[in-house]
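Recall that a protein's primary structure is simply its ordered list of amino acids. Everything else, from secondary elements to tertiary packing, is in principle encoded there. The following example makes that idea concrete.
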Amino acid sequence: MALSGINSVFSVKQVFWSNILLAICCAFYLAWWLAAFKPTGAVKGIKSGWLLIPAFAAGLISIITAVKGIQSAPVSATLFPKRSLLWGGIAAYIILLLITKFFFKRKVTTELVLIVGWAAMMMSEIDMLYGIGHISHGTAAAFIAVVAVFVFISLGCYVIYYRLSGRAGYFDGMVPLLLVALAAVCVSVVAA
């Protein structure tokens, strides 16, 4: 097997494991959310906060693994110009921060950077999988459309969260986590 073929296999495995770790991150984050924000009988403090430790660890390792896989891939084609996803993600975050803060009066929280960062990472993975010939142009376009819809829904949940009552806000907060986990599992299946 040629070196580029070995690198392609390595890159796909990295993306596979990155998304498995992202799904694990979401599972722990969701478990914390379910315990800490329960409308009645919420479990606060260290009793639920410890769930954020494995969530953070799995999320960080997921990002590192994805970046290694993306950077080591011998891509022969791209869907996006080089570094456009990085700079586009930064620009999108700044624009969305200003829009949500000043137009929607939404308090800025970590979730916004997580939504935008996830979208940029997912688009980079799709671009890489397409660039090494692991997925077709049509499959890549379908994944991009799904990511765009998931981001739109997640941003909607982000904007309205503080306007909702306890129970509605509780369920609203789960939606982005479930969507990210679903997308991560789907990319892992395609990468497998």
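The chain has one domain: 3-191. The mean pLDDT is 92.
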